Each structure stands twice: as structure tokens, then as C-alpha cells.
């Protein structure tokens, strides 16, 4: 825990309900003001905080001590002006995740993440209320229906005279979902391995859930979508909980996605499975329409270990990676990691066109070097030359010294040398 929090915890006292009391020997008015502001356990919130202590600690005194220091640290960050959610927005699962983080900077980042999530939800509710008020005002301006017919047809709007057919959002969703249902019958399967939820933090799980949601949306917009299969999917995990928040109808039987708690080894033939991992050496040369490609559902911002490659090796599966280095020139500071929806878009384009350069248009431009076409061509040629192995020309092999036979030893003729010198003096 943070040393400042430990010091404050030692100076102050806590009662059974978790209320902070300032000792009488502390006379500094500024310090008292800070600590009074940190007293987040008001009478209205005591029951909620007491339930959080019980749920997180479960009778463990050491965890209870750490949690109280952590609550004080959270309140101090709020008073210092950092982005921290309100007390009523902090739940037991948030404090459980904070206890797992071993540095103050990580806890600050996590609190900032929670703050942005809460404010985003507040903005969504506010916009919804404003939209409802705007619709109500617009509805009041519409003339009543008992007006004369001549006046009714002169009003041009969706509720009056209009030659356009109104297409509702539900109709558009049904159209896209119908494409996915056809893909479930005739399309190629694409597997998302959701078994990495215990290797990720809450922030990474939330990011992964968002990427899966975007992957689903991009897939159903495609002309020839994949048949998506979420394998190793644990419905009690953080990833499943956050994904259900983003897609409310995820578990509905008519929703066009396949969810399996089993492994892909139990569902599909092993000889057709190909695990796409960026850590292996073999690159994809062409797209195989008969293969069952597996994408690891993991966001590894904190953990940089090659988990997908280790899992594929353990299961003895064929591994491949996208030929990114062959077609793209990366900048020095940016990583080569891609999101799940970007990988899906690349696979869709290369499946339809077979052109890797066209498919890699989905890679963010900020990760690539900004060069002109002639410079890019020169760099590519240099890279090709570096990769080429030197092979000698067979026509010129005899010119190299190591291919010639043994040299003949010539005897030195001193008499000829002397004759030639004397002849020069005579002349």
C-alpha cells in the first residue's frame, strides 16, 4: 500500500462501521480539513461500506486493514483532483481489483478508467433524456389529426405526406442478422478463443469485450461474413459479464453467434485448425478457405508473454502469423499488435481478394512509416537484397583463387637477369 495511506491510517482511528475519527492531538487545521474531507463514511453510506467490507474481506483482518488504507488512498486521490469515481459508484468488485494492483500508478490508472466509464454512462443517460424532451417538443408542434384533409396532405414529414418508405433500425438489424444466419449454414468458420480471461485485468477484459463487440459488428457488415464461434467461453467470467453489458441479446437463442463452453478441440477436426499468433515464425503465404482459423481473444497490454503460442504448442496445433513485416514498414516506437476487429477485417479482405497489400489497409497509419512511393520501393528492394543469399556464378568460378589448382613453382634464373642488366648499360 501507499506509504502516505499507511501513515494516515496509523494516525487515525476507525470505529466498527468504518467511520474515520481524527485523534484529538492533531492540531493542524489543514490536515484536519483534509481528513474531514476524506471521511467518506457518512451515515447515509455506512451500510453500503459495511457490506463492501464484509463482501471483500470475508472476516480476514489483514485484508480489512489493507482495504481501509486503500479506501483512504482513494479519497485522498479524489481530494487532490485526480479522476476518481464517487463513493456510491465504487463497488466491491472494484475494490477487489484494486487490492490486486501492487503500485500506486496502476491504481490511479484503474480509478481513471472507472471514472471515465461512469461519466460515459452519465452522458448517455443525459443525452437520452435530452432526446426524449426534444421529441416531446417536436410532437407538440405536430398539428392534430382531426384537421381537414387538404391541410393534412400539405404537411411534408414522416408522419404525413411522404413518398419514401421508412426503414426502421429493427429492419436493418434483421437484414444484417439474416446474412449471419446464412453464414452459419454455408460460410467459413472463424474461432475466437475466449480462454484468456484469467490472464487479463479488468481493464483488459473490458477492452477485449469491446473488441469482440466491434468484431461482431464488422463481420455482419461484410459481404461474405464468417460463422463466428466463441470457444472456451465461461459465462461467469469478467469477460462474459462485460460482453453481455455491451450486447444485451447475447444469450438469446435467435442471436446469430455460436457460444461454446467447450474447447475447439472438442468441436472441430484438429487437422484443419490453424492458430494465428504473432509470436510464431511461419508466415501465411496464402489464404486457405478450408482452414479453421483461431484468433486468441486476449488484450496483452500488461502481460507481454507469448500465451497464444504456448497454448498452440501445448495443444500441438499448426501456427501461423500474418505477413506484416513482408508488406509493411513499421515505425520504431509503435508496436505491431492489432485489435481483434482489425485482424477480422484483414482476413475478410484477403479471403475475398487474395491481395495482402489491399487487406493491410486496416492497419492504423500511425503505426507505419510515412514515405513516398519511390522511397517505399527502394526500402523494399534493400530488404529483399538483404534477405537474398549470395550464390556464385558458375561461369566465373575458375577466377576465384580457392577454385584454382596448386601453383607451379618457378626457378629463378640469375644468369638471364644479369644479362638483361648489362645489356642496358651497353645501350
UniProtKB/TrEMBL annotation:
GO CC annotation, single: nucleoplasm
Alphabetic keyword roster: Coiled coil, Methyltransferase, Mitochondrion, S-adenosyl-L-methionine, Transferase, Transit peptide, tRNA processing
GO terms for MF: methyltransferase activity; tRNA binding
Keyword tRNA processing: yes
Superkingdom in the source lineage: Eukaryota
Domain SAM-dependent MTase TRM10-type: 176-370
One GO biological process term: mitochondrial tRNA 5'-end processing
Keyword Transferase on entry: yes
InterPro entries cross-referenced by the UniProt entry: MT_TRM10-typ (IPR028564), MT_TRM10-typ_sf (IPR038459), Trm10_C_MTase_dom (IPR025812), tRNA_m1G_MeTrfase_euk (IPR007356)
Location of this chain's protein in the cell: Mitochondrion
PANTHER family associated with the record: TRNA (GUANINE-9-) METHYLTRANSFERASE, TRNA METHYLTRANSFERASE 10 HOMOLOG C
Name recorded for this polypeptide: RNA (guanine-9-)-methyltransferase domain-containing protein 1
Lineage: Eukaryota, Metazoa, Ecdysozoa, Arthropoda, Hexapoda
Amino acid at each position: 500500500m501507499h506509504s502516505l495511506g499507511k501513515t494516515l491510517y496509523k494516525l487515525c482511528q476507525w470505529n466498527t462501521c468504518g467511520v474515520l475519527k481524527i485523534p484529538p492531538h492533531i492540531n493542524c487545521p489543514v490536515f484536519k480539513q483534509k481528513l474531514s474531507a476524506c471521511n467518506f463514511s457518512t451515515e447515509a453510506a455506512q451500510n453500503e461500506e459495511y457490506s463492501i467490507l464484509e463482501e471483500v474481506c470475508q472476516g480476514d483482518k489483514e485484508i480489512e486493514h489493507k482495504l481501509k488504507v486503500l479506501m483512504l488512498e482513494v479519497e485522498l486521490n479524489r481530494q487532490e483532483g485526480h479522476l476518481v469515481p464517487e463513493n456510491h459508484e465504487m463497488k466491491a468488485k472494484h475494490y477487489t481489483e484494486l487490492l490486486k494492483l501492487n503500485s500506486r500508478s496502476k491504481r490511479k490508472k484503474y480509478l481513471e478508467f472507472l471514472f471515465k466509464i461512469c461519466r460515459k454512462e452519465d452522458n448517455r443517460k443525459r443525452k437520452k433524456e435530452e432526446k426524449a424532451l426534444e421529441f416531446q417538443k417536436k410532437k407538440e408542434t405536430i398539428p392534430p389529426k382531426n384537421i381537414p384533409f387538404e391541410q393534412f396532405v400539405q404537411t411534408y414529414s414522416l408522419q404525413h405526406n411522404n413518398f419514401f418508405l421508412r426503414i426502421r433500425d429493427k429492419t436493418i438489424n434483421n437484414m444484417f442478422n439474416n446474412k449471419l444466419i446464412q453464414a452459419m449454414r454455408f460460410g467459413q468458420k472463424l474461432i475466437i478463443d475466449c480462454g484468456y480471461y484469467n490472464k487479463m485485468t479488468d481493464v483488459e477484459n473490458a477492452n477485449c469485450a469491446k473488441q469482440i463487440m466491434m468484431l461482431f459488428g464488422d463481420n455482419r457488415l461484410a459481404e461474405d461474413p464468417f460463422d463466428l464461434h466463441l470457444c472456451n467461453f465461461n459465462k461467469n467470467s469478467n469477460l462474459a459479464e462485460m460482453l453481455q453489458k455491451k450486447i444485451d441479446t447475447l444469450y438469446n437463442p435467435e442471436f446469430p453467434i455460436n457460444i461454446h463452453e467447450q474447447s475447439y478441440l472438442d468441436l472441430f477436426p484438429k487437422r484443419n485448425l490453424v492458430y494465428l499468433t504473432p509470436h510464431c515464425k511461419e508466415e501465411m503465404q496464402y489464404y486457405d478457405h478450408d482452414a479453421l482459423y483461431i484468433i486468441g481473444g486476449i488484450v496483452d497490454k500488461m502481460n507481454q508473454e507469448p500465451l497464444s503460442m504456448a497454448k498452440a504448442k501445448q495443444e500441438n496445433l499448426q501456427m501461423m502469423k500474418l505477413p506484416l513485416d513482408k508488406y509493411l514498414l513499421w515505425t520504431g516506437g509503435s508496436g505491431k499488435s492489432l485489435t481483434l476487429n482489425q485482424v477480422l477485417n484483414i482476413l475478410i479482405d484477403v479471403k475475398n481478394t487474395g491481395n495482402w497489400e489491399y487487406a493491410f489497409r486496416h492497419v492504423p497509419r500511425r503505426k507505419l512509416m510515412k514515405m513516398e512511393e519511390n522511397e517505399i520501393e527502394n526500402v523494399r528492394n534493400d530488404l529483399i537484397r538483404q534477405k537474398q543469399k549470395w550464390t556464385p556464378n558458375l561461369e566465373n568460378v575458375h577466377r576465384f583463387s580457392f577454385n584454382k589448382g596448386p601453383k607451379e613453382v618457378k626457378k629463378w634464373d640469375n644468369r638471364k637477369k644479369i644479362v638483361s642488366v648489362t645489356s642496358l648499360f651497353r645501350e
